Amino acid sequence: MASWKESSIIPTLPLHTRVGERALESTRPTSPLIIIPRPEHNISRANISPNAVKVLYRLREAGHRACLVGGGVRDLLRGREPKDFDVATDARPEQVYKLFRNCRLIGRRFRLAHVQFGSEIIEVATFRAHGGDSEDGDGPSVERAADGRILSDNVYGSIEDDAWRRDFTINALYYDIATFAVLDYVGGMADLEAGLIRLIGDPAQHYHEDPVRLLRAVRFAAKLGFRLDPATEAPLHRLGHLLEKIPPARLFDEILKLFLGGCAIQTFELLRHYRLFGWLFPATEHCLNHQQRHYPKTLLARALASTDSRLAENKSVNPAFLFAALLWEPLREQMRHLEAEGLDEHEVLQEAAERVVQAQIRHTALPRRYSLPMREIWELQQRLTVVTGKRPLRLLDHPRFRAGYDFLLLRAEADEQAAELADWWTRLLALDAAGRAQATQPAATAKTGKPRRRRKSRSRKGDQAAQPAPEA
Ligand code: ATP
Ligand code: MG
User: What is the tally of helices (H) and strands (E) in the chain?
Assistant: First the structure.
């Protein structure tokens, strides 16, 4: 990225004013287009997914403008491997659709073409203009809620319009397949060099238009290790409430991106710092505030750290496990309430889990394909306390055993009784079949002496120690 500053600088033409674009006019500074020619940047076609290259060329051969944009360009310029490749073009979604057999059109709020190559999807978006309401009633328009949120964003525009309606300057760089140059309309290159996350245009207005940008600001700051520009940062603390307006399903998708991007721990800390976390997980936030004085290092922080290290080692991570950790403290709190009401142990867990899930889905979606295994992981914490007889051996075949055991290991780091129990299971797993049968004899636990015999009847369920159970 040595000499891009000396590259050709083309002053942009004055914008012609369209109906409804006056608000935008006031916030779009006239910044020159900076063209960084191929010899002056490090993006090579060899580092772009061959499928994305194919899409770019097919569009170009059909007479369209086609550029790589977004995280793909940003990450390649930083010398990192992009997560995915997004393409921007002047072809309309229907025109893209006709060019590719493996293509489908998706989205209402934002109409896009997905070109599928096996498991890889190349997302192709048509250049769009910023959300000025079209008042001429002609063609698609930007649909807004009374609070300014953009509900549907299908006003097409020029590549420059497209750059200005993106979220952050570093996400609005284009790699043009026609010239192999990088096009910078918004000062993204300078911010990329300075390590700065800066919203394009007026920050408060942009957050109001799409409050998910609050989360994206934090996500990119954590992921890239960049600073937030002061004007981009300032509204974060006070605008978390806007997230209440976002459909729970979209928040759920964003949560997965926040916590499964490899920087969960930094992301979590920033979300809490900017008072955004509580708008996603109010019950967890409540517990964290309550507990922090006593237990600064929570199970959640450890779960997030372990998610990051698994991802760093290219191991799989299960969102159900993550949610089990995110909602563990609320679960324990509910269990304490219900225990006080005199429910039996199993009922307490079931009812508490139900309450926690019901409360959470008022804020973010939590699809059953994740909430069911999450609840199984919680139930296993109870079932893992049985260490004699056939039950522990049968539990080894439980489809969720590994997740339940891993969860127990996390609990073990802060909880002495859970540590003893985890230790017992770790040793059991190391034995052969005969050894396991012996270790689970009713007398064996007393001999090996590890899990203590009985917890006090009033101890918390979530913390309970192993209790050799009588044979069923
Ligand atoms: P990642 O590495 O996570 O894929 P990304 O920057 O590519 O990061 P995407 O969610 O894939 O993020 O979006 C692609 C591009 O679309 C972004 O870089 C940005 O230019 C634009 N974009 C995405 N979401 C928004 C939004 N909410 N508001 C404005 N622009 C957005
Ligand atoms: Mg992307």
Answer: 23, 13
Q: Which domains are delineated in the chain?
A: 4-208 (3.30.460.10), 277-463 (1.10.3090.10)
Ramachandran quadrant class, 315 (left: phi over 0; alpha: psi -120 to 50; beta: rest): beta
- For residue 207, the ligand closest to its alpha carbon is 1
pLDDT in tens, 110-134: 899 999 999 999 999 999 997 644 3
Ligand number nearest CA of 153 is 1
Ligand 1 atom 28: the closest Cα is on which residue?
167
Residue 252: the pLDDT is 97
Residue from 177, 186, 182, 249 nearest 212 by CA: 249
Q: Which residue has the higher pLDDT, 72 or 289?
A: 72
- How does pLDDT run across 389-444, given as a tens digit for each residue? 999 999 999 999 999 999 999 999 888 899 999 999 999 999 999 999 999 998 75
CA–CA separation, 300 and 21 (whole Å): 45
Q: Any idea how long the chain is?
A: 472
State the average pLDDT over residues 96-105.
96
Which ligand 1 atom is nearest residue 212's CA?
A: 27
* Nearest atom, ligand 1, residue 125 CA: 16
- Residues lining ligand 1, judged by CB closer than 6 Å? 70-71, 83-84, 86, 166-167, 171-172, 210, 212-213
Catalytic residue numbers read 84, 86, 167
Could you tell me the distance, in angstroms and rounded to a whole number, from the CA of residue 160 to the centre of ligand 1? 16
